[in-house]
Amino acid sequence: MRMAMVMALAAALVPAAALAQEPAPAPTAAANEVDVALRGPIFGADSDRARFERYRDLTTGPTLERLRWGRETEQWRVGVTADHAGYRDQQFSVSFDDFGTVKARLEWTQVPLFYSQDTASIYYAPSQAELLIPSAIPQQIQGGTLRLQDVAGTGALKTLDLRQRRDVLAFKVTGAPWPNVDASFSVNSSHKLGRQPWAESFGFNVANEVPAPLDHRTTDVTAALEWSNARGMARVAWDGSWFDNAVESLIVDSPTRATDSTNPTAYVLGNGTSRGRMALWPDSTSQTVSAGAAYNLPARSRVNGMVSIGAWDQDAPLLPYTINTAIPVIPLDRLTAQARALVTAFTVNLVSRPTDATWFNVRVRRYDFDNRTPIFHVTNYVRFDQVIEPSQLGQNQPFGYTRDAIDVDASFTVLPYTALRVGYGHESDDRTYRVIEASNQDAVRASIDTVGNPYVTVRVGYEHARRRGNGIDEVALDEIGEQVSLRQFDISDLDRDLVSAQVQVTPVSVVAFTATTAVGRDRRPDANFGLLSFDTTGYSVGVDVTPSPSVAFGASYGHETSRSSQKSRQANPGPQFFDPTRDWFTDMNDRVHYATANLDLLKLLPKSDVRLALDWNRSDTDYRYVLPVGSTLPTPSQLPTVYNELRRARLDYRYTVSARVAAGFSYWYDAYRVDDFALSPQYVYGQRSLPDGLMLGYFLRPYTASTLWARLMYFW
Q1: How far, in Å, CA of 464 to CA of 541, rounded?
Q2: Which residue from 325, 235, 244, 342 is spatially nearest to 288, judged by alpha carbons?
Q3: Which residues have CB under 8 Å from 339's CB, separation 6+?
Q4: Rounded CA separation 184/175 (Å)
Q5: What is this structure's pTM?
Q6: 179-214, pLDDT tens digit by residue?
Q7: How far apart (Å, rounded) are the C-alpha atoms in residues 114 and 563?
Q8: One-letter-per-residue 3-state SS of 630-654
Q9: Which end of the chain has less Cβ packing within 10 Å, N or C?
């Protein structure tokens, strides 16, 4: 099928090529190309093909790897492109440009996502909104004749490919209906279809992985009108976005219950419901109108700005409190979400260079997310589809915030080729329904830049930021049973320092050395629990050598480290809750090494181009549980190091047969190694059915792949 399609497309190009060479009224030659390839990967034993392909399709076979066709005259140009035709990651486009009048482009792109080729599940899907289990399994588990950890041995698990694919259709047209005026209209429609790993929890003691269905579309439309002349421009636009999900909720069978119950002694595992139900992504819309303008001022200055007002709406039906038929129905405060937010944003930017030695920039921004979702009152709710309990808050919390920011930067040329740059930034946040109602962050930055010197380029920078919050509502944390000194990392007080340096040395025109380094330190002085610190350190060195137009070589090496510390307390309500001897820490230490090298030999051999590229990445991460002196907690068992390594080599050879024909050969080598306590199959998850749940088998597994390509290219 693919071979026939490729040959047909290649044959169809022959008359097009012939026509392109015939005399025509005032045409100019267009750069046309067709590249047909035959390729296929060869895998080592026990390789994870899904992880190797992930966002691409390297299925063995012929492919129209690349097509570029165009025709151009003095008045218009038309073009057609195709990439990887016939496979899951194919892309096509058609464009037309009537110079100075109208320009249009249509694109279609596919993006695959391959999770696993050996995932297994006992669930089957009679419809997109249901995942069911053969009734005999939950009946036997409920009756005590089958254990959950033995389900895999019954043969009930069926292997499946876990995939999804996004298809994107994009169209844009731009025209000039009047002098100095451009009008544009664009549509982007993205459809995602397939399945992905998901989890359905039936209480703390049973959590199952399931292949959740995906079938949703996002459609974005933009219409704009823009006027411009030598002094400035103005633009008005409307943006609309619609998200439509064919599967807004999912019903999943419990593997441990065949009948509904509220009696905790009436079941072996899980809670009392025979089915679970969860909401997925609801349909939603957004509409935004915006206006922008720019104007050139005296003294080499320019001001520009933009303002937008948008409305976000989501009114999906609300699910009942439970699907458990043994629990009385609790009336909902309303039947649909009625979620709505108004979003207002503006930016004003002033750039000026009054003299050759000075430059400054001032930017003011605001983003206001006004959440107008009505209050949803909750008296009682159902916990884990089993127990009716009173709500601690009694209502929903429609989060909203207003963020204001100002940044001022200035640059002064203090020496030849050298500039001193200083800056200040202020950001304030005013929030609703957050523990910290408001916060202010101030940042100062400075750098020295040496640019334009033919031998040395240097940039050294320093930034210090300080964020402090006010209006802390510790009562809200106490009401939900949290430690009152817990701080959420995105809004907690913060002290941050960052130092960076970049150097490039070019002793001769054909050689360049580069080096970079950066050190960052984050401290959260007000957080007694949660994230306390986060530190980063990194450096890289590289060299590029180009002794002739035919030879180029480059190599680089880098190393990065990240360290963090988090604090928690293992305690039940009562005296333990306030006992500091039950504190514990999680310290993370991540080390990353990476190296690259490339060599290009262009026409060094007659009619031949050779390109070689090497990449190596390795990461080692440790998570260590630390107990303070005097701790009353038992000594923790430490987790093994998380290890990832990726090695890649690319060799490409191209031989020019004639002015119209070239042939090529490529060899790719990929090797991935991994050891991760969370998902690697050598740990307990490889059993797929456990005492506390069923696993899909979406693992982190290694692979080794050698991919061979043979290519034939024709130009006209």
Answers
A1: 26
A2: 342
A3: 312, 313, 314, 315, 373
A4: 6
A5: 0.89
A6: 999 999 999 999 999 999 998 888 767 788 999 999
A7: 32
A8: CCCCCCCCCCCCEEEEEEEEEEEEE
A9: N
